[in-house]
TrEMBL record:
Membrane-spanning residues: none
Protein name: 4-oxalocrotonate decarboxylase
Molecular-function GO term, any one: 2-oxopent-4-enoate hydratase activity
One cellular component (GO) term of this entry: cytoplasm
Species per Swiss-Prot/TrEMBL record: Nocardioides zeae
Length: 272
């Protein structure tokens, strides 16, 4: 038993190391025959180690992200299960800030709805209900997520994308709005790049209603023992398929909610 466990552990560590190196060097990995096939539990263990490495290098966890919460995203990537990843301040870009394309492998952008929680939530607490999560929401905003799979060709299966922290690379959020002041169930969403509309959709594409992601946040977070400290951001998911991020201005407009902005730049400093 001990041998089996340590062999699994070695596989998790190997995947974590390769993905960490790929992200830091902006060089994609190509999983070949020697690439360990991880179970989903092992993949989340690799993700946790990957995030831990970032924290040990001085980053702070600032939130979580849900992935594959829309048909468009599932169809685009050929995966039909929701996943969760971790956001750090190293990924956070101020609204209107810059993202250095030179630090990324092959980034894509997607329009998101973002939640902000106003009090500490221990998702592992068995007494916690979805209503508690909803009651703890203190802001909702338009968001932009930059995803950047560390795998060559953006090609992965479910455990691989989970291990890769769900391709999380950068994100920004627009102005926070009181969640009680806006109905977010069916708002038009537009993603524009360099002044041209690149994708259009609706917040209804996010599981029918962005708030429908909360039970998944709770169940995935409970399974993984995650917590959501006060002030955490949660990206609920993309309203459209992702499109390549090139140099230029990116604007996400969520009608009746607000806008989020970032600029892709070739080289130079990333605003933080
Ligand atoms: O919806 C998501 O944010 C999932 C991102 C992971 C899959 C991808 O790289 O497209
Ligand atoms: Mg996303």
């Amino acid at each position: 038993m001990r041998d089996v466990v340590s062999a699994r552990d070695t596989a998790v560590e190997l995947v974590c190391s390769r993905l960490d190196e790929a992200q830091r060097s902006a060089t994609p990995v190509r999983p070949q025959e020697d690439w360990p096939q991880l179970s989903l539990d092992q993949a989340y263990a690799a993700q946790a180690r990957l995030v831990d490495r970032r924290l040990q290098r001085g980053e702070q966890q600032v939130g979580l992200k849900l992935g594959f919460t829309s048909e468009a995203k599932m169809r685009q990537m050929g995966i039909d299960e929701l996943i969760i990843g971790v956001l750090t301040d190293g990924m956070q870009v101020p609204d209107g800030g810059r993202v250095d394309l030179g630090t990324l492998v092959h980034p894509r952008v997607e329009p998101e709805v973002a939640f902000r929680f106003g009090r500490d939530l221990d998702l592992a607490d068995a007494a916690l209900q979805v209503a508690d999560l909803q009651g703890a929401l203190d802001g909702v905003a338009a968001g932009i997520e930059v995803i950047d799979s560390r795998y060559e060709g953006f090609s992965f299966d479910l455990p691989r994308v989970v291990a890769d922290n769900t391709s999380a690379a950068a994100f920004t959020t627009g102005e926070w709005v009181d969640p009680d002041s806006v109905q977010i169930g069916e708002l038009a969403v537009t993603l524009s790049i360099a002044g041209a509309v690149a994708a259009e959709g609706s917040t209804a594409a996010i599981l029918g209603h962005p708030l429908s992601t909360l039970p998944h946040l709770l169940s995935l977070g409970r399974k993984l023992g995650l917590s959501v400290p006060a002030g955490s951001v949660v990206l609920a998911g993309a309203a459209t398929a992702a499109v390549p991020l090139l140099a230029g201005d990116v604007v996400v407009r969520v009608a009746g909610l607000g806008e989020a902005h970032l600029t892709g730049v070739d080289g130079g400093e990333v605003a933080s």
